[in-house]
Structure formats: C-alpha cells, structure tokens
Inverse folding.
C-alpha cells in the first residue's frame, strides 16, 4: 500500500477470534454467540468468563467465577490512600486510569503467580470499588468498605454508589449494558491495548493506555456528551429545533454514527428499550422522549442512527449514575474485551508497527547556526 487510509478505515489490521462486528449473516457475536442471546439472557459475569476463558461457563463454573470476583474486591491500603489524595474534582476517568496504574505498581504482573487473566478478573472485580471509594470519600467524607457480598458487578456498583441495595430493574439494566459494552473487535481503545501488548509491556500498561483512548468523545466519552446534550432540553420540540441548528452549523451530535456499522448499531435497541422502561418506571419520560426525537431528526436529516452510547446515557441517568461516571462504567465492561485481546495478541505476537505515508518537505541541507538568517 502506498497511500494511507485516513483513520485506518477499512484496513484489516490483524486477526482475531473474539468478536465479529457487522459481518453479514452473523452481526455482532462474542466468541460465536450472538449479542441478542447474550444481552437477552446472560449475566455480565458469564460474558466476561466467555471472553476471557474462551468458553461459556456451566452453572458450577459460573458460581465459582462469581465467588472468585467477589473475593477480589478488596483495595490495598496504599491504593485507598492514593485515591484519597487525588482531587475530588478529578474526572472519574482519571481515577480509573490512575487506579489501574497504581494497582500495577502494588500487585505487579508476574509476582505471586499473577497472570493476564487473573489481573483482568481482579480489575473487573475492583475497578468499580476504586471509583466509588474515591467518590464517596470526596463527596461525603466516607471511607467505604468495598468488600460487599453483592452477587454481581452491576449490583456492587450501584450498591457502592448509593449505599443501598439497588432496585432490580435498574440492576438488570446496568448488567445488560455491561454485556453490550464488553467487547467490540478492533475499536480504538482495544487496538491501543493490543499495540501496547505487542511491545511485550505488562498487562496493566495495556489497560491503562486503553482507558486513555476510551476517554475521548469520539469513542467512549460520547455517552457523557450525549447526556449533556439531552439534559439541556425540556421537551422534544426544543430538542428538535436545537439539533437542527447544530446540524446546520455542521456540529457533531455525539452518540450517532459509527465507523463500521452503516445502517444501525445492533446494541442500540436494547438500551433504547431499557431507557423507555426506566423512564416509565420513574414516572418522567422526558429524557427518553427527547432522545427519541433527536433520533428521528438524525435519521431524517443525516441518515444517521444512534450508536450504543446514545440511549445508554438516559439509561445510566435513570439508574442514578452521575454523568461523569458513564465512561468509567464502559471501562469496567470493556476490561473483559481488552483483556481478551491482550491475551490473544500475546499468544501470537508480532510488534504492531505500521508505516506512514510521508507528506513532509524534500530533503534539505542542514546549515550551522551562524549561517541561518
Ligand atoms: N453527527 C453529525 N454528523 C456526523 C456524525 C454525528 N454524530 N457522525 C458522522 N457524521 C457525518 C460527518 O460529519 C461526515 O459528514 P461529511 O461527509 O459531510 O463530512 C459523515 O457523517 C461521515 O462521518 P465520518 O466522521 O467520516 O465517519 P467516521 O467513520 O470517521 O467516524 C464516528 C465515526 C467517529 C463514530 C462519527 O460517526 C462520530 O464522530 N460520531 C459521534 C461520536 C460518537 O458517537 N462516538 C461513539 C462511537 S461508538 C462507541 O464508542 C461505543
């Protein structure tokens, strides 16, 4: 290839047996299982196990895995001290990135038999606790115990957030959203993790780098940006007028479009349905109604469809999650996918090092300083 593909669009940058996305006849699958079946019937822990250990767990294996994750929620004292030292005004994504990095220093890979999948389990089990320990300390001056007997990652997260056992409908919605966010082939953050893994760096470095890539609003940060947009409007009519103006000004509407999907995101209907249900449950469907109107305008005006991030925003809001924690939830879920990719990359590694199409000047003569004007 002599010319570059902008943003690597359309480039097959490696092989993977983890997920298919947008494949005709298959759609989105994790390890061969369709997203409709997984989002409709599985639990997030089952999906994490599938991604990390390359098979669906049977009932005993799933019980053992859930127990294993429960046993990995403890935060080292030094990590808690560091979380207390971080500013309360930090963005939660800074907390996630820092938390992973610190854990990498306190519990390094290779020591005490720590392997990639073990570190992935530890992170899936403890990332929510890190975030919410920091949050409750800075917001309410509390030092919470992150070692709860909650049965799932979703329940643990909502429990630590509010201090109360969550409503089952909200817990189910969060659990389903974790499944939908768990894996998505060579997206920007996963590819970042694979690049870092390809240098033979440690597991934590790959995950910390992926968190950095996820943060931007063109990727995971879109769910926070979508929330900021929909929260501005009191009615669908107001939203329609403003979005039309934004489009006329050639502004991006976050939560719409996708690099790979061209006609629709197969994950979106699940979160849309959950958003509707949760809005009805809370007795105020304004956010859902506003979101639906923006969806209509985007389809009619731009032929664009909502991606997973758009309706996830109202789902998380209805679940009582602060907006700045939307992308961190994506981190918790996607850690399963990132980890599966790091393991896959390591199993058949070659340094990822592409070429650039040079667009700089022709070769020039260097002159000593005193000769330069
Ligand atoms: N709002 C308005 N216009 C859009 C949007 C949008 N959300 N998305 C694409 N377009 C327009 C572009 O402006 C461009 O128009 P033009 O041809 O007139 O210049 C055209 O559609 C093609 O868009 P590209 O940016 O070339 O598409 P690309 O494949 O590079 O980008 C991306 C995909 C980044 C997701 C883009 O659609 C976007 O910026 N969306 C908003 C951010 C977002 O929602 N990100 C989340 C992605 S999914 C996830 O991480 C779970």
């Amino acid at each position: 290839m002599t010319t570059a593909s902008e943003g690597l669009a359309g480039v097959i940058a490696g092989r993977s047996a983890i997920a298919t996305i947008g494949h005709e006849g298959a759609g989105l699958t994790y390890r061969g299982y369709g997203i409709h079946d997984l989002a409709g019937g599985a639990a997030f822990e089952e999906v994490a196990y599938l991604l990390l250990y390359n098979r669906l767990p049977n009932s005993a294996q799933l019980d053992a895995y859930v127990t294993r994750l429960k046993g990995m929620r403890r935060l080292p004292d030094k990590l808690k001290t560091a979380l207390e030292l971080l500013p309360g005004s930090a963005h939660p994504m800074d907390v996630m990135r820092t938390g992973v990095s610190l854990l990498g220093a306190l519990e390094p890979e290779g020591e005490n038999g720590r392997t990639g999948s073990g570190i992935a389990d530890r992170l899936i089990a403890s990332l929510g606790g890190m975030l919410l320990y920091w949050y409750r300390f800075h917001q309410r001056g509390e030092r919470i115990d992150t070692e709860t007997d909650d049965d799932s990652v979703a329940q643990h997260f909502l429990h630590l957030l509010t201090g109360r056992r969550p409503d089952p409908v909200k817990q189910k919605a969060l659990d389903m959203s974790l499944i939908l966010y768990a894996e998505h082939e060579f997206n920007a953050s996963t590819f970042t993790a694979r690049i870092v893994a390809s240098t033979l760096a440690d597991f934590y470095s790959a995950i910390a780098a992926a968190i950095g890539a996820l943060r931007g609003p063109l990727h995971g940060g879109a769910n926070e940006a979508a929330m900021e947009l929909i929260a501005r409007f009191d009615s669908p009519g107001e939203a329609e007028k403003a979005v039309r103006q934004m489009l006329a000004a050639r502004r991006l509407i976050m939560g719409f479009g996708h690099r790979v999907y061209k006609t629709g995101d197969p994950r979106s209907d699940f979160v849309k349905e959950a958003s509707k249900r949760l809005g009805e449950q809370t007795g105020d469907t304004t956010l859902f109604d506003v979101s639906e109107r923006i969806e209509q305008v985007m389809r009619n005006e731009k032929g664009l469809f909502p991606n997973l991030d758009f309706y996830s925003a109202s789902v998380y809001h209805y679940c009582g999650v602060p907006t700045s924690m939307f992308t961190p939830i994506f981190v918790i879920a996607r850690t399963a996918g990132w980890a599966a990719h790091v393991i896959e990359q390591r199993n058949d590694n070659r340094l990822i090092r592409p070429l650039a199409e040079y667009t700089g000047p022709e070769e020039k003569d260097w002159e000593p300083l005193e000769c330069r004007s």
Observations:
- The mean pLDDT is 97.
- The CA atoms of residues 173 and 274 lie 6 Å apart.
- The domain at 19-216+325-347 is CATH 1.10.580.10 (Citrate Synthase; domain 1).
- The first helix runs from residue 35 to 41.
